[in-house]
Design goal:
single chain; alpha+beta; four-stranded antiparallel beta sheet; three-stranded antiparallel beta sheet; 6 helices; 26% strand; globular
Length: 256
């Protein structure tokens, strides 16, 4: 009951924030997060304790920052706003409600790929806009919200856009899930999961226990998703998924 009292709750959160801050060394203005999608559960935790964090967005081709916002003005779930001297737009007729490709323009955008005019032309259009390959939305204040990679987007049975990264983010927060890949087979979505076998072993779980936990995870996940995004089954992988040098899962190896 005490934790439900505003004053007590605030003090507890302040103490937790202090401990997390000290875990990072204590002497910093803010922590900038980037490089991959930020787990929503972790962000919610940091947001609740008022930890000084923000999320940036960039690419090697933009050397590398495109979006950033100070933690004081950062909007949860976004990756900030167009950085200094950068212009960002969404290739959508309604960027606040309909995702489109994120385009960037500015003095830090590369001149082109070395000795590869074809690749350069496909990445930078005649007006100088760099095409990121990422789908996103922009609110009225210019905050960018990334939905996923264009090449990863799936289509639902009635033509709905399905962003597997968003589903994977939720699934990865559930019990004993180390990492996952969402694939499509016909009109059904399947979750491929590499469980946390070390944790399972330490808790004395056998293969049947893990299978039952994965089914519970599937039911919990589906309760959080629209009907067209629900997962038909979870398949357990015995080994970690293959990755690129940047530690991104090579999802094309698993999509039939």
């Amino acid at each position: 009951m005490l934790l439900h009292m505003p004053v007590i709750s605030t003090k507890v959160k302040e103490k937790i924030c202090e401990q997390v801050t000290q875990a990072f060394g204590g002497q910093f203005y803010e922590i900038i997060i980037g490089g991959a999608a930020f787990n929503q559960e972790i962000e919610s935790f940091l947001n609740q304790i008022k930890f000084h964090y923000t999320v940036g967005y960039g690419a090697t081709e933009t050397a590398p920052i495109m979006c950033y916002a100070d933690y004081k003005t950062y909007v949860k779930g976004s990756c900030g706003r167009a950085a200094l001297h950068m212009k960002i737009k969404i290739d959508s007729e309604d960027p606040e409600n309909i995702p489109g490709e994120i385009l960037a323009k500015g003095p830090n955008v590369m001149l082109g790929y070395y000795k590869n005019e074809e690749a350069t032309a496909s990445a930078i259009d005649k007006n100088g806009w760099y095409h990121t390959g990422d789908l996103g939305m922009m609110d009225g204040d210019g905050n960018i919200f990334i939905k996923g990679r264009i090449k990863n987007m799936l289509l639902g049975p009635s033509g709905q856009n399905i962003y597997p990264e968003e589903i994977e983010d939720k699934l990865n927060s559930l019990a004993l899930v180390n990492e996952s890949v969402i694939i499509q087979e016909g009109n059904k979505l399947v979750g491929l999961v590499y469980p946390d076998f070390d944790e399972s072993k330490s808790m004395g779980f056998n293969d049947t226990d893990i299978k039952n936990i994965m089914e519970q995870d599937r039911e919990q996940l589906n309760s959080m998703l629209p009907h067209y995004c629900k997962i038909s089954e979870i398949r357990i992988h015995q080994e970690e998924f293959e990755k690129t040098p940047k530690r991104s899962i090579k999802r094309y190896l698993y999509q039939k």
